[in-house]
């Protein structure tokens, strides 16, 4: 929440609205992308998406495929479509997967569709089906590409150091692609080469520690589940922020009076005592660090 009490999305939208109405951003000029807004104003991707959606609904900006968001009012010359001499053409599988990932990263899996990806690529929706069978196959390809980005170094000799490296790398990957944790299944795992490489690395670290196969595999799944479970909140928070225009801190601040009224009857003394005795910040990164260290300590104590 800014000093004037306005949500971050409203504050940034007001700044861009002022620049448009003042003529600083002329008709046809490109408006900062969601990523540019994130970097410049220090807000979440969901907040940046909310800003552009608000301005679009107000008729101040419009989206031009292949260009991005521009100030409404003047035609924009679209760049020529790039053609490739390769058999895949400009709409190869890699390009489609990359476009789908951009959509999911910015807007969540709910926004992913073949038509939406086609618009991102400035292509006819049916042209995508020559390269990707359907949305389900596209999602699998996106998942594999995303999990393959998880970078792991040469395995260390110490199993605890290895598990910590793997957990941090996975958390970083989930932070980069908030839709990925919900897409991955633990009980019915998708056959993804990238996920297999990750598991191979972790299992190698634990096997070299001399653990039996059952303990090795169960430990791997336990750490993976911890990271994935906490990361499930990343997309949920992004969706909530986009819908409300409020960050989690701003939302919590708005609930203080309601929470005080809820516990005023004195029936929850432990809850009241704990919350009144600390200044708690719902920081998922801090919660990840806290949980990871205690999980590893527990594994070490029983291993």
TrEMBL record:
> Does this UniProt record's set of keywords contain DNA-binding?
yes
The processes (GO biological process) annotated in the record are: negative regulation of DNA-templated transcription
Keyword Cell membrane on this protein?
no
Keywords attached to this Swiss-Prot or TrEMBL record, sorted alphabetically, are: DNA-binding, Transcription, Transcription regulation
Where in the numbering of this chain does the HTH gntR-type domain appear? 6-74
* DNA-binding region coordinates: 113-132
Gene3D superfamilies per the record?
A: Homeodomain-like (1.10.10.60), Tetracycline Repressor, domain 2 (1.10.357.10), Winged helix-like DNA-binding domain superfamily/Winged helix DNA-binding domain (1.10.10.10)
Stored Pfam families: GntR, TetR_C_1, TetR_N
Q: Where is the HTH tetR-type domain?
A: 90-150
Record-level Gene Ontology MF annotations:
DNA binding; DNA-binding transcription factor activity
Question: Which CDD domains does the UniProt entry name for this protein?
Answer: WHTH_GntR
Which PANTHER family does the record match to this protein?
A: GNTR-FAMILY TRANSCRIPTIONAL REGULATOR, MANNOSYL-D-GLYCERATE TRANSPORT/METABOLISM SYSTEM REPRESSOR MNGR-RELATED
- Name assigned to this protein: DNA-binding transcriptional regulator YhcF (GntR family)
Annotated organism of origin:
Petropleomorpha daqingensis
């Amino acid at each position: 929440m800014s000093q004037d009490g306005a949500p971050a999305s409203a504050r940034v939208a007001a700044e861009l609205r002022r620049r448009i109405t003042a003529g600083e951003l002329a008709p046809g000029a490109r408006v900062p992308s969601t990523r540019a807004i994130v970097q410049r104003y220090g807000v979440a991707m969901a907040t940046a998406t909310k800003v552009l959606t608000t301005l679009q609904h107000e008729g101040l900006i419009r989206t031009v495929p292949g260009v991005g968001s521009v100030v409404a009012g003047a035609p924009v010359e679209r760049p020529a479509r790039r053609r490739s001499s390769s058999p895949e053409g400009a709409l190869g599988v890699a390009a489609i997967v990359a476009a789908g990932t951009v959509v999911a990263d910015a807007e969540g899996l709910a926004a992913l569709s073949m038509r939406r990806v086609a618009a991102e690529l400035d292509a006819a929706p049916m042209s995508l089906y020559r390269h990707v069978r359907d949305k389900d196959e596209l999602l699998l390809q996106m998942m594999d590409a995303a999990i393959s980005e998880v970078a792991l170094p040469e395995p260390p000799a110490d199993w605890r150091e290895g598990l910590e490296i793997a957990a941090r790398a996975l958390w970083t990957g989930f932070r980069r692609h908030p839709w990925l944790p919900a897409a991955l299944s633990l009980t019915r795992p998708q056959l993804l080469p990238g996920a297999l490489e990750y598991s191979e690395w972790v299992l190698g670290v634990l096997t070299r520690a001399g653990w039996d196969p059952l303990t090795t595999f169960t430990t791997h799944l336990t750490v993976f589940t911890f990271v994935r479970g906490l990361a499930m909140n990343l997309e949920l928070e992004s969706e909530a922020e986009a819908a409300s225009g409020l960050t989690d801190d701003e939302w919590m601040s708005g609930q203080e009076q309601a929470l005080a009224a809820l516990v005023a009857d004195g029936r929850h003394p432990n809850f009241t005592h704990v919350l009144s005795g600390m200044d708690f910040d719902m920081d998922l990164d801090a919660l990840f660090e806290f949980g990871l260290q205690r999980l590893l300590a527990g594994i070490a104590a029983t291993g």
